[in-house]
Amino acid sequence: MFSPIHCGLFFTPDHIEQAHTHADEEPFRTAWAYLREESPTEPVALIQWNALRYRFDEDANAGARAIDFLRQYEFDFSQDLLTTTKTWVTLAQSFEMIRGHKALTGERADDWMATFADVIATLNNEHDLALYEQLWLALLRLIAGIVLEQQTHFDAGVAYAKQFVAHEIRPQGHIPRLVEASDGRGLYRQLIATQALVLIAEAATHAGHDLWSFHHRGVSVMTPVVYLLYYYFYPDQWKWDPLPENTDESVTDEDESSETDDAIVVHPDFATIKGFWEIAHRYGRPKDFKLLLENARPIYDAYGGGLTTLTHGLPLKKRRGLFGRYV
Question: pTM of the predicted model, to two decimals?
Answer without folding.
Answer: 0.92
